[in-house]
What we know:
Layout: H1 2-17, E1 31-39, E2 50-61, E3 65-76, E4 83-93, E5 100-113, E6 122-124, E7 127-132, E8 134-137, E9 140-149, H2 156-165, E10 172-181, E11 186-187
Antiparallel strand pairs: 1-2, 1-10, 1-11, 2-3, 3-4, 4-5, 5-6, 5-7, 7-9, 8-9, 9-10
Amino acid sequence: MIIKKGFLLVLIYALCLLPPLSAGSAEDQNGLKIKLFLDAVALEVLWTKHISIRGGVGASLENGVAFSLPFYFLIDRSGGDEVLMDIGLKLHCYPWKKGPFFSLSLAQFALFIGPYPPEETLHYLSEIGIGYTWEILPYLFIEPEVLYRDPSNTFKESFTYIHDYIPGYQKFQFCLKVGWMSRAIVSVPY
């Protein structure tokens, strides 16, 4: 456990210190871009007792501010067949306008859906994250991100309730988002 925490701290420091690997072209500097993404870590279904599907849509500006609407479905295959839908509105801040970022949820809720929902179906949550965006081709990107759920323990009862029903819902989660980003669709003066 100590090795995992040490590795996580080294990863966070490395992501913060790395300079952005790509600089945008001059004609794209003042535009709004639309992003679509899916989580490639969903392949963990091959060796775990849950199915996780993460994806979403977002919008970003070249000044280092972005918003996203991620969705997350977690299906328990360990016996209960519970299905959790987690949706939020997240703010992403890129200190160097590209590359490393941190994120925080502005609004987030989790809802049990499916044929056998538990008694309490709606839960409010929060999460923060840190990651790095690599633009591998002009319109394709890879974005590893480490998420930490309920960092202030404000929603401790909700997190515990969800974790009791679906043990795959953990405090830390690693995501590897693969996505597409549009060209600047609206010129934004700033």
